[in-house]
Specification:
The protein is built from 13 helices and no strands. By secondary structure, it is mainly alpha-helical.
């Protein structure tokens, strides 16, 4: 069974209560800022990067950082199946959306988008209630957790190859300024702040399993899908961006689940320290692993572009 002997950030008492609330608010603010940055990248001219960022482990990392010593591994085990589910739901949404765009051209794009999102939310709730606990009960050791991540990774590769159907082109969509994105999505950024506060309150209340699942709540993926989804008829560039985002969406959970496992090992290895020292060590580890996740996503996308370039070169030579 998994154990936890590292730092306990949550269990503070006496005069340290003020430090706890400072940590609470700081994590909510940092998480909201990170969401705004991810949203900015989601609106850039690289939709495949947006596809992988749909499951970026922002809430997962914050949830683990807030977890108490006894709750850490339970939360991590609850997160893993939900991260995989989020990736599958995003892929299913994009594939279904593109199919409906080509077959039901008379249907209102807004009706189509909101209907599919509502269906995804219902599926997510049902899976979180009935399926995730079954998978969570299986993930009782590091070996089983790694086997679960490997199984998902092996299954996602052929599906990703199938989804990478069209080459990536620039349709003239320029990278927007961060300030403009923040102004246009102020309500969504505020909603993320509220969600972060609610998740951390649930974690403090002792519902560790549901805190782990809620920290994998697909708010960020579904917001990003709303941005990428065409809301008007005959908007081919938007449709193409959605298809390209779906090409890499199944790879994002591999990065996120690996992050969860590594971050848990890191927190478990930390010695018992003073509350402030514990917070600093945890935050530094979190920021470092977030950076590693970003570099991994960048490397995967570069590899995909290189493989596509080699494939096109081979097709040109074969046509001569």
């Amino acid at each position: 069974m998994l154990g936890r002997t590292g730092v306990d950030i949550v269990n503070l008492s006496g005069n340290q209560a003020a430090v706890e609330w400072v940590q609470f608010l700081l994590k909510a603010v940092v998480g909201t800022c990170l969401f705004a940055v991810i949203l900015w990248y989601a609106q850039s001219s690289n939709p495949r990067a947006a596809g992988m960022l749909l499951t970026f482990p922002a809430l997962n990392g914050l949830g683990l950082l807030m977890a108490g010593s006894d709750a850490l591994h339970l939360m991590a085990r609850a997160m893993l199946p939900m991260i995989a589910l989020n990736g599958l739901l995003c892929a299913a949404y994009i594939v279904t959306q593109c199919q409906l765009l080509s077959r039901l051209t008379h249907l209102s794009p807004r009706v189509r988008v909101w209907t599919l999102l509502a269906a995804c939310v219902v599926l997510w709730g049902g899976m979180a209630q009935w399926v995730a606990p079954v998978v969570q009960a299986y993930l009782v050791s590091s070996r089983q957790i790694m086997a679960f991540i490997r199984a998902y990774a092996v299954g996602s590769v052929p599906l990703t190859v199938c989804l990478l159907r069209s080459p990536l082109h620039d349709h003239g969509r320029r990278r927007q300024r961060f300030r403009d994105v923040l102004r246009a999505n102020a309500g969504r950024v505020g909603g993320m702040f509220i969600l972060l506060v609610l998740v951390m309150l649930v974690a403090r209340g002792g519902a560790e399993a549901w805190a782990g699942r809620l920290s994998a709540l697909p708010l960020l993926p579904f917001y990003s899908l709303l941005i990428l989804s065409p809301t008007r008829l005959h908007t081919q560039p938007a449709v193409t961006h959605l298809e390209h985002g779906g090409g890499t969406v199944l790879l994002g959970p591999v990065v996120a689940m690996t992050f969860v496992w590594v971050f848990v090992q890191y927190l478990s290895a930390l010695p018992l320290l003073h509350a402030v020292s514990s917070m600093i060590a945890g935050v530094l580890g979190l920021l470092t692993l977030w950076g590693v996740c970003g570099l991994t996503i960048w490397g995967i996308l570069r590899g995909v572009r290189w493989l596509e370039h080699r494939s096109r070169e081979g097709e040109r030579k074969g046509a001569r």
